[in-house]
Write a structure and sequence with these properties.
Elements lengths: L5 H57 L9 H8 L6 H65 L4 H41 L5 H21 L3 H150 L9 H17 L6 E7 L2 H8 L1 H17 L6 E6 L2 E6 L5 H15 L3 E3 L2 E3 L3 E7 L6 H17 L5 E3 L2 H22 L4 E9 L5 E12 L3 E3 L1 H11 L2 H23 L6 E5 L2 H5 L3 H12 L6 E6 H6 L1 H14 L2 E7 L6 H6 L4 E4 L1 H5 L5 H17 L2 E5 L4 H10 L3 E3 L9 H10 L8
Parallel strand pairs: 6-7, 9-11, 11-12, 12-13, 13-14, 14-15, 15-16
Antiparallel strand pairs: 1-3, 1-6, 2-3, 4-5, 8-9, 8-16, 9-10
Helix pairs in contact: 1-6, 2-3, 3-4, 3-6, 4-5, 4-6, 5-6, 8-9, 12-13, 14-16
């Protein structure tokens, strides 16, 4: 028999390998099919067990044994998410919604029954007290009757004594009737709670009628004041019982309806679930059948392979010797080739060693880069990226486990810029390192303390039991950082404003940090060292402020801010002296926005500078036009308020000069108003700015005079032309002699210093008359005119004002 060729043997080997691979694949497929069948069977059993457990939990929750049931339906949906049909999921959701309504209604009914029973106990205590009081009084009358029988004297007194005793006895009897009626009424409430609303209405009205009749009889017999108070309380209690009974009847009927609806939803869910389980069982049977067919096929293939293998074994055994001979010859040839290529192998080995060394170095550098990417270089704490990663893990854990509880604490150092500016950035860096270490000492091992940048830190508290743990951590932090620390030889006390976001649900990590940041800024508004817990109201408020900021920025850019003018009058002559320019904003959607809202927003966001430039430009423009119309014989002075940021702006003087030149307004017709607080913030800088403005020729007014803390020496040194008395003094002027003396003192002081005075907020004739008698020359307020639009101001200037009527 001729031996097969090399090609034939290779072909046989390939066939053998293919059969072996096919066999291995077939075994894996069979194992996978069996695993799938077991999984589907286990899922069906688990679903049936979950639904049975859900039924038991619902019944326990309705009996008041557990409070965790409202999330039971959600747990079933989450545990079998993606495995149930849409119909089953919808049925489960419907059942959960009906059960939540039923549970809420049941708790409301229990609370109402508790309230009725509490009221019953209170009123029965009062009746018992009255009953004991009259029983004691009746006993005294009986004793007196016994004495009178023992020594008879006056028949009329004995008769009156007997009448009093009969009255007291009637009162006691009626109080007992009321007492009995109350418990009958409570029995009706109990029956309503246990048996439902059917058949208890007539019984309740019957006992209420008896209760009201007993009260009427009690009222007819009793004349005592304490009894009268009890009668009033009984009548009010009866009304409360009737209202409570009506509400409970409605709730009981609603409960019956919800119970029926829950039973229907359970039945529908059971039918749908049985159908779903039947489909699962049918699919399992089909998979089992396919598995059996596949196994039979694989067995047949293996048998064919065995027959072929036996057939070729005889040929392969003869070919082995020839192959061995050929292998020996090949071995000799390879030996010669190995000797020739040994040098190339050594060189390759050296290159491999070098490559391995480079790989180790690269791994070390990658570790350093990873550390830099997830840690803060200054403090060594985790950075924002690391914190967001930990937050993502916490969010996933909370989604999987409803009992998982976490919180984010956002901290911002108060007045840290002062430390950097006064002590230097090196000292500031030491403060940040010390603060980071202190935070690490205040938390548990599993919590994350991170530096977000600058002087902002954040803490992620995980796996908490209650909300109180978060507050305890915050209090512990505040207690630790309130202690004096030594940094670069300086003793410092560092405070931080703290915002807290507790157990947020369904949010991204960036949203949770934003919420804690919003709470921190709200705490910072209340002063240093405060903390605030985030609520949706804070988020809505921050969103409203952001929208208002965007609208205000757009309104300023589009020149939609209007400028109104309030006249300043000469009191003796009734002549118009000037006017104050006031910013007004009419929002296209929200209407008129008061200055008390958008001016502080502009101050906080930096929009006050473009807003102030807009008001100054328009005020100068209108003032120039009105003064040109009046001619050289008359002049009107325009007053413009300066905000603190405007006053401290380096370009203020150039800006004022530019507007005066652009509008052709004489400098003495512009008066800039500043406050005492702005002057006292930095006396030297304020004096320098005021002198530069005075060099331009503009006037200066001290607004809200009397509300600040400036001294007489400062008032003498500051180059102001006018004092504007704050409206709070003018409001109390006619009712407070001390306020009148203070205003008179300000007027006398202004005459001594050569200053003008404007009284703000004048609103009635009495104030006008008193200011005139005190010698005040200029006034401003609603008594003369409200702030006017430029068009209304045109008419006011053209037609003048009527002569002032003095009281």
């Amino acid at each position: 028999m001729p031996l097969p060729s090399i090609g034939t043997r290779l072909y046989q080997l390939v066939v053998l390998m293919c059969l072996l691979v096919g066999l291995a694949i077939s075994m894996l497929v069979l194992k996978r099919v069996d695993s799938h069948i077991q999984e589907r069977t286990q899922e069906a059993l688990r679903l049936d067990k979950a639904l049975s457990s859900l039924d038991a939990d619902e019944e326990a929750a309705l009996r008041g044994e557990t409070l965790a049931m409202p999330s039971g339906h959600l747990r079933v949906s989450e545990n079998f998410k993606g495995q149930l049909t849409p119909e089953v999921e919808q049925m489960l959701a419907t059942r959960g919604a009906v059960f939540d309504q039923l549970l809420t209604l049941t708790r409301r009914m229990e609370d109402e029954h508790t309230r009725v029973f509490s009221k019953l106990l209170d009123i029965t205590d009062a009746i018992r007290y009255i009953h004991q009081h009259h029983a004691a009084y009746l006993q005294n009358l009986v004793n007196r009757e016994a004495i009178s029988v023992a020594s008879p004297s006056d028949r009329d007194s004995r008769r009156r004594l007997n009448e009093s005793a009969n009255t007291e006895l009637s009162i006691i009897r009626e109080s007992l009737n009321i007492y009995t009626s109350l418990f009958d009424i409570h029995a009706v409430f109990f029956k309503l709670q246990q048996a439902g609303p059917e058949g208890v209405g007539e019984l309740f009205h019957k006992h209420m009628a008896r209760f009201n009749a007993s009260i009427s009889s009690f009222e007819d017999y009793s004349l005592d004041a304490q009894d009268g108070l009890l009668i009033e309380e009984l009548l009010l209690t009866g009304k409360n019982f009737e209202q409570s009974f009506s509400g409970l009847v409605e709730m009981a009927r609603e409960r019956v309806r919800l119970l029926r609806q829950l039973a229907e939803s359970k039945a529908a869910l059971n039918v749908t679930t049985l159908k779903f389980l039947a489909e699962q069982d049918a699919e399992v049977r089909k998979a089992q059948l396919r598995s059996d067919i596949l196994q039979t096929t694989f067995i047949a293939v293996i048998m064919v392979f065995a027959v072929l293998f036996i057939a070729y074994c005889s040929q392969l055994s003869k070919a082995v010797k020839r192959i061995a001979s050929e292998a020996h010859m090949l071995q000799k040839d390879l030996g010669h080739r190995v000797d020739a290529d040994s040098a190339w192998f050594d060189e390759f080995q050296a290159v491999f060693i070098t490559f391995n060394t480079m790989a180790g170095t690269l791994g070390s550098q990658m570790g350093q880069l990873t550390s830099l990417a997830f840690n803060d270089t200054l403090t060594g704490l985790p950075n924002r990226t690391h914190l967001l990663h930990r937050l993502e893990i916490a969010i996933i854990a909370s989604r999987k486990n409803p009992d998982y509880f976490f919180a984010v604490v956002f901290l911002d150092l108060d007045r840290f810029k002062i430390i950097n500016d006064s002590l230097g950035h090196e000292c500031g860096d030491e403060v940040l390192k010390t603060f980071g270490r202190t935070l690490g000492e205040c938390v548990r091992d599993g919590d994350t303390v991170a530096r977000l940048g600058g002087d902002e830190f954040a803490i992620l508290l995980e796996n908490l039991r209650t909300r109180r743990e978060v507050i305890q951590v915050v209090k512990r932090i505040r207690a630790r950082i309130s202690k004096r620390i030594s940094v670069s030889g300086f003793g410092l006390i560092v405070q931080a404003s703290i915002g807290i976001s507790i157990n947020p649900k369904g949010q991204k990590p960036e949203d949770i940090l934003r919420d804690a940041d919003i709470a921190m800024y709200d705490a910072k508004k209340k002063g240093a060292g405060k903390f605030k817990v985030y609520t949706p109201r804070l988020g809505e408020q921050a969103l409203r402020v952001l929208n208002m900021e965007l609208d205000l920025r757009q309104a300023i850019e589009r020149l939609e801010i209007e400028v109104y003018f309030q006249p300043i009058m000469e009191l003796e002559t009734g002549r118009l002296h000037g006017f104050e320019a006031l910013a007004r904003w009419r929002h296209p959607d929200h209407g008129a926005i008061p200055p008390s809202k958008f001016i502080p927003l502009a101050e906080e966001t930096g929009l006050i500078l473009p807003l102030g430039r807009l008001v100054l430009a328009r005020a100068c423009g209108y003032a120039a036009r009105w003064n040109r119309a009046l001619g050289p014989g008359q002049s009107l002075i325009v007053h413009v308020n300066l905000s603190p940021k405007q006053f401290c702006n380096a370009g203020l003087v150039q800006e004022v000069a530019r507007e005066l030149n652009a509008n052709g307004l004489a400098a003495h017709l512009l008066n800039l108003e500043i406050t005492e607080t702005m002057l006292m913030a930095s006396t030297i800088n304020a004096l320098s700015i005021m002198n530069r403005l005075k060099d331009l020729g503009v006037g200066l007014s001290l607004d809200d005079f009397g509300t600040g803390y400036s001294s007489l020496g400062n008032l003498r040194d500051f180059p102001v032309d006018t004092f504007k008395i704050d409206r709070s003094f003018i409001t109390r002027l006619c009712h407070d002699k001390k306020t009148e003396d203070m205003v008179q003192l300000v007027l006398a002081m202004s005459r001594t210093l050569g200053k003008e005075v404007v009284a703000e907020g004048v609103e009635n004739a009495g104030q006008v008359a008193l200011l005139l008698s005190l010698g005040c020359r200029l006034v401003q307020g609603f008594y003369f005119s409200r702030p006017l639009s430029p068009q209304d101001m045109d008419a006011f200037i053209e037609f003048g004002v009527p002569q002032l009527q003095m009281a």
